[in-house]
Amino acid sequence: MKERGGFVDSLLLALLGVVMLLNLYLIFYHAPVERTMGLVQKIFYFHVPSAWIAFLAFFVVFVGSAGYLITGREGYDRTAHSSAGIGVLFCSLVLLTGPLWAKPVWGIWWTWDPRLTSTLVLWFLYVGYLLLRSYLPEGPRRATLSAILGIVGFLDVPIVYLSIRWWRNQHPSPVVGGGSGSGLDPRMKAVFFFSLFAFTLLYVVLLRLRTRHARSEEAARSVLEERKRTL
Amino acid sequence: MNALTRIGAIFAKDVLVELRTRQALLSMTIFSLLTVLLLAFAFEPAAEESVLIGPGLLWIAFAFCGTIGLEHTLSLEREMGGMEALLLAPMDRGIIYLAKLAANTFFMFLAELLTLPFFVLFFNVNILPVLPDLLLLNLVGTIGFCSVGTLLVALTSQTRLKGVILPVLLFPVIVPLLLAAVEGTGAILRGEPAGTPLRILVAFDVIFATTAFLTFGYALEE
Hints:
The structure holds two protein chains of two kinds.
Chain A: H1 6-30, H2 44-71, H3 74-106, H4 114-134, H5 140-167, H6 186-230
Chain B: H1 3-21, H2 24-43, H3 47-79, H4 82-88, H5 93-123, H6 131-156, H7 165-173, H8 175-189, H9 195-219
């Protein structure tokens, strides 16, 4: 049995290796050291792209879920599941790098800022998604039920953000490194966008590998079941 | 039979069963009261603090009691094979959802109504002058809670863990609802209008009731 896309994956993986190394070089040598925050600010180039990947990944979960409910094709479910795992991983990274950055800069590990709080809620939503999957037997039922949760979870994201922003905003929004181009040095900006690109590539490679893995797993299982029947 | 009479028929059946057995409503109310009591012990609010923490306390109790109620209306159908009969009925699956939503909302709202007097008693908060506003907000919030809950319980009841995982999935989704409800209740208790929170709650109800109406059919066993 010939595995599709193996060559493309190897190529992407090689490219990713080069891009990631280049990204690290740019972050630590090319980008200027921030005046007030110093070296700690370098975490920005990991923190914000991780957040972007988490959001992208959860959006893909939503698309995959809707695709599965509409077409019933397994591929959509595989994509949604794989993407949810990656999303939770990067969301965890956001929640870890955030306090690491906040402690030296704001002097506290955590603040009930809308962005932080909604990221935390997001993390709970998609950990729930993965939990639900793990408690269901494999098959079309699991795909359908998790697709519904994938849709509900994603629809909740904007409402969570807005509701928290309306009422739990007693803390000033962070001014530093907001990424909205608020006085960001052009070299910093360039490095930031490169990092964003590098992380997106990482996401694409991870998603491809995970879905391929899931596909081979299913193929292996069906071969095993075939053997069991003939024995 | 049009949609409304169908919804009414399933709803009436659920209410009738409940009236005969009185299982769910009783345990929901008692549980809700216990939660209020435990939180009151845990925080020991002084009179002026009651208005501050009262709304949050009340809604945590409602969320807990609602969670048990959700589990009940669906397991009712499973026990005697009622679900097969419902699925066989020639109607849109969304109708079953709306009927279950109505039943869940009805029971949860009743439990809330029974909890409120004790809240007044324990915390010495006068809710009489604002009662209509408060009940409206509670009703809208309860509909929102049940609109998500009725869908999610259909998912979790098919897992091995059933009741354990429902709150794990449900509570993150209802974070915005809880925020708006608490904020709205607080405003009402302070004698202010609860315009924005109420609008958020209505938006939440509409978004999730629509989503659930469309996807509920997939969630039920074939």
